[in-house]
Amino acid sequence: MTPLTPRLIVAGADRAIDFYRTVFGAELSERYVDDTGQVIHAALTIGTAIIALTEERPEWHNVAPTTLGGSPVMLNLVVDDVDALGDSLLAAGAENVIPIADQFYGHREGRFRDPFGHLWIVTTITEKLTPEQIRARMGQG
Questions:
Q1: How confident is the model at residue 25 (pLDDT cuts 50, 70, 90)?
Q2: Residue 131's domain spans which residues?
C-alpha cells in the first residue's frame, strides 16, 4: 500500500508553495505547469509527510475552499513548538480559528485557516495519555 497524499486545491498555487515553505519549512520536490504557467501539480514535503497541490480549475472540478466558502477537511500537523508555529502562521497571514491552548487529552493545540482556505490543527503533544486517562479527564471513567 502506498501512503495517502492529500492534494490541496488552491487559488494561487505559487503563493501557496511559498507560504507552506515559509511557515512549515516545506521542501518543494515537484512542480509542473501547463502552457499558461498555471501549476497543475506540485509536491511538498513537511517532515515525513507529503502534500500535493494544484491550481484551482473549475473545468477539472478542482475548486478551492475560498471559492466554496470553506473546507470541511482539517489537516493536523504535530510539531515541537506549537506556539512558535502559531506565531509564524499569523505573521504569514493565516487566520486564528481556535486559539492555541492546553487540551485535556494531553495536547497543546490550536486551529488556523491559511490564506488559501485550508484548515490546520497545529499540535504539540505535552502528555502521552492512555485512553483510560483521557476518558477519566472527560468524566467518563
A1: very high
A2: 7-137
| pLDDT at res. 141 | 64
**Model confidence at 24: pLDDT above 80:** yes
Number of structural domains (the chain) is 1
Query: CATH number for the domain including 57?
Result: 3.10.180.10
Residue 109 forms part of a structural domain: yes
Secondary structure (DSSP) of the chain: -PPP--EEEESSHHHHHHHHHHHH--EEEEEEE-TTS-EEEEEEEETTEEEEEEE-BGGGTB--HHHHTS-S-EEEEE-S-HHHHHHHHHHTTPEEEEEEEE-TTSEEEEEEE-TTS-EEEEEEE-----HHHHHHHTT--
